[in-house]
């Protein structure tokens, strides 16, 4: 188990580094978008190549940061229901999700996509737009992103199994803060509890 936990830490480090630098892709896309808008308005000129660079960068930032997002527990979760369950039940739900949903999905995407990327690289497929870019760099973001997501899913799976075996810390609270969904779930729970107690207080008066 200790060897698997070391592997988990290495995966966490990898996705943390990717997430740290992925923000620069968004920054670059924002600058290019602003520059395109200014040039189009001021000089009445537009370039398909620069327009495509924008969504290439956005695609890369969105896909390669998927593993980092999972590391930070910021993927969409149904915490309104999940947060009411016992901790071990929550951990088991995560284990089943990582093992039987996330892993097969990522494997299928990689299996179908990698040959497609190789084909597009070998053919040198270009954009259908005039002055557009070669296509394989943006397609490459898919296998890279899903590979990082798959690795992070395995890392999270290792941490949850270690927790159930008493060999690891609580994986649900490792970040020291609640996710946005968890905070919303708690607010909704408090509001429901306040609504339940309000009629009783009114009756007492």
From TrEMBL:
The keyword Transport applies. This is TRAP transporter small permease protein. Residues 31-161 form the Tripartite ATP-independent periplasmic transporters DctQ component domain. The keyword Cell membrane applies. GO terms for cellular component: plasma membrane. Belongs to the TRAP transporter small permease family. It is a multi-pass membrane protein. Pfam families: DctQ (PF04290). One of its GO terms (molecular function) is transmembrane transporter activity. It is found in: Cell inner membrane. Part of the tripartite ATP-independent periplasmic (TRAP) transport system. It comes from Extensimonas vulgaris. The complex comprises the extracytoplasmic solute receptor protein and the two transmembrane proteins. InterPro entries: DctQ, TRAP_DctQ.
